[in-house]
Amino acid sequence: MMATWGCRFLLQRGAQLISRAAAESPVQLLGCIRTVKTTTGFEEHLTEDNQKYMRNLMAEEYRSQTAERLNPLKDEPWPRHEWTEGSRRVGLVAVKLGMAPIWTKTGERHPVTLLQVQDCHVLRYLPKEEFDGRSAALVVGGKNVSPFYRTEKEMEMFRNAGVPPKQKVTIFKVSDNAIIKPGTPLYAAHFRPGQYVDVTAKSIGKGFQGVMKRWGFKGQPASHGQTKTHRRPGASGPGGDPAKVFKGKKMPGRMGNTYITAHGLKIWRVNTKYNVLYVHGTVPGHRNCVLKVRDTVLPSRHSTVLSPPFPTYFTEEEGDLDEDLFDENLFIHTEPSLTLT
Amino acid sequence: MAVCSRGLDKFATSLRFCRKLQLHNERLLSTSVCRPAADSEPPKFVPPSKPVIVDKTQTVASLRKFLSPEFVPPRQRTDPFKFFLERKDMIRRRKMLNIPEFYVGSILAVSMADPNASGKTNCFVGICIQRGGKGLGATFVLRNIINNQGVEICYELYSPRIQKIEVLKLEKRLDENLMYLRDALPEYSTVDPEMKPVPFSPTGEVPVNLIKVRMRPKPWSKRWERPKFNIQGIRFDLCMTPRQIEGAQKHAQPWLEYDMLKEYDTTKLEQQILKEVQQEMSK
């Protein structure tokens, strides 16, 4: 954080201000003076050489940390349990790369989003009592970022897990038989083709938008005598009986930049070498945004048939998966062209 | 004695030298040239080894250095890794189906799998009027006139339903986009469905057809005379008065060619991608 101008409330002089300004308006009570915050960015008090050295040092440290963590099973893992009816397992944090077309064996074309799992680690275990009293939770983080712009409190959590700081930190509600030791890396092979997932991400922010774009109102005609009214909301409710506008009335305002979940997306293909998931359809968020991926909540798309790895996929154990795992209906490009019968 | 030994020595060294030369030259050039005169027996006829160095690492087709336009990534904020993954899939498909080099204006014949056709395949011959899309979703539009009805079909290059793409006539035109053929006289869009492929040597230059097309009377589907489309292949002098042509020039935006933010230089990218693609295809 750079040196910023902050506001300190004047608690002592507040009473005097209140008495003086009470006549004008109650809102302007809070007197503020500008103060300089003492926290500075890491670069401010270092020479150039030292800055470079710090950067290289952190990079090396994190490379060694990730290398250590590549073998979770040798690292005294927590006991693993079997899958039972009604158990929930962890999800992943992925980055949206872009979209591409995909064809089935019958020649149908579907659009598909590519999600890459970059440096996903389990950070903390929150037992039932600490979390919400009903189910345990695992804190998972994705995509490494630089440590220089993170507070000490955040860094503490990453240091305890022995992992570089992450851009996105999310909580997954998990059943007790699926808990994982903090510091374990999670890979894309955690999901298998044919499974269904829910993807949550912040939608693209559109700023302050009118009622037609935000809520899909029809607006008014472009001509035939309309005076200065083409995109306005029109009426705002019934008339004299309520004599008010109901709460939650759809009106213009800020649109986008909120968490949206897309449910029931099928996974067509998993690339285990580069940790890429090919997920059906579109997903909220812009390119290169960080998202949260987890098993579906929808009851009609349960993945009981597939038996995905529980609690998660460990490289040493299941080791040699093929570089690409395909869904059975998917057309693979190394096959000859289709001959429909 | 000294003379004999010296002579013998020379003979031995010369023999050794000649044998070495022989072995060395047998690999590259014909041996008849370096046959030593010192050999006592008459020279046996040894058929010369191949005199021409054939560069078998490069196939003839790749000698031309053509990179299909859908390999060049668009100017976006996408991670280049995503284009790398797509390119791998595109190359895998190209190894199964030969997608030949073609340009807008060439005549192609495409056979595709169709569940509703008899024999389950249908074949279409037409002139390529547009190549769009990047990556796996690249498309091309073929136009032809069948029974006095203009037909345009948009094919996806990497769709698994396409069984064969054949170039009947490879040529370029004056424009990158021939959509104006919709407003041109039908004779310019008609292609004989039974046409035989025109032979073309893979090492020659692609011929440019400088034809200028005659149009139907206005109105057209788009105002092709405007400088925004920059069309070179229409005979405007036959269908518009000089005054109309001048009027169309009023819509010119001459500052666009100096706009630095619109510059996108792809030469280095193209070279890199071409090298990568050729390496993968030859594996």
UniProtKB/TrEMBL annotation, chain A:
<dbReference type="Pfam" id="PF00297">
    <property type="entry name" value="Ribosomal_L3"/>
</dbReference>
<dbReference type="InterPro" id="IPR019926">
    <property type="entry name" value="Ribosomal_uL3_CS"/>
</dbReference>
<dbReference type="InterPro" id="IPR019927">
    <property type="entry name" value="Ribosomal_uL3_bac/org-type"/>
</dbReference>
<comment type="similarity">
    <text>Belongs to the universal ribosomal protein uL3 family.</text>
</comment>
<dbReference type="InterPro" id="IPR000597">
    <property type="entry name" value="Ribosomal_uL3"/>
</dbReference>
<feature type="region of interest" description="Disordered">
    <location>
        <begin position="219"/>
        <end position="243"/>
    </location>
</feature>
<keyword id="KW-0809">Transit peptide</keyword>
<dbReference type="InterPro" id="IPR009000">
    <property type="entry name" value="Transl_B-barrel_sf"/>
</dbReference>
<keyword id="KW-0689">Ribosomal protein</keyword>
<keyword id="KW-0687">Ribonucleoprotein</keyword>
<protein>
    <recommendedName>
        <fullName>Large ribosomal subunit protein uL3m</fullName>
    </recommendedName>
</protein>
<keyword id="KW-0496">Mitochondrion</keyword>
Automatic annotation (TrEMBL), chain B:
<dbReference type="InterPro" id="IPR001857">
    <property type="entry name" value="Ribosomal_bL19"/>
</dbReference>
<dbReference type="Pfam" id="PF01245">
    <property type="entry name" value="Ribosomal_L19"/>
</dbReference>
<comment type="similarity">
    <text>Belongs to the bacterial ribosomal protein bL19 family.</text>
</comment>
<keyword id="KW-0689">Ribosomal protein</keyword>
<keyword id="KW-0687">Ribonucleoprotein</keyword>
<dbReference type="GO" id="GO:0005840">
    <property type="term" value="C:ribosome"/>
</dbReference>
<protein>
    <recommendedName>
        <fullName>Large ribosomal subunit protein bL19m</fullName>
    </recommendedName>
</protein>
<dbReference type="InterPro" id="IPR008991">
    <property type="entry name" value="Translation_prot_SH3-like_sf"/>
</dbReference>
<dbReference type="InterPro" id="IPR038657">
    <property type="entry name" value="Ribosomal_bL19_sf"/>
</dbReference>
